[in-house]
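Session log. Operator J.P. requested a structure for one protein chain; no other inputs attached. Running the standard single-chain path with token output.
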Amino acid sequence: MRRSQSSYLLYLILVCVAQAGCASTPSVLNVRNWIPGSSAKAGQALDAQLSLARLSERHGDPDAAEKIYQAVLKKDPQNQLAHHRLGVLAAKSGQLDKASEYLDAAARLGPPSGPLLNDIGFNL
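Structure written below.
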């Protein structure tokens, strides 16, 4: 009898956790809102592009990441993160002067974050 009670208790806990997780999850967004060039809000499209660029960096495709960051800068020339990451990509490819320009631009566009200051110091 004890085994069945503990099984029911475990089942009850799993159901409660699943319901709590589903209840606190935001509703699923329309996929078309994340496709650049669609009728999505500009901020959401830029966030999606920045995420894709970071993912490209992590997967070892700096050329694709650079193209995406450049596209972000065409839409939003004041995007601090795009300048920052382009500076990092330039530094990794040995273009230290170009990296310095991007990193300095990122520092001028807002309060510099710790990672930005770290990358500026590393580039110097």
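Operator note: The longest helix spans residues 2-24.
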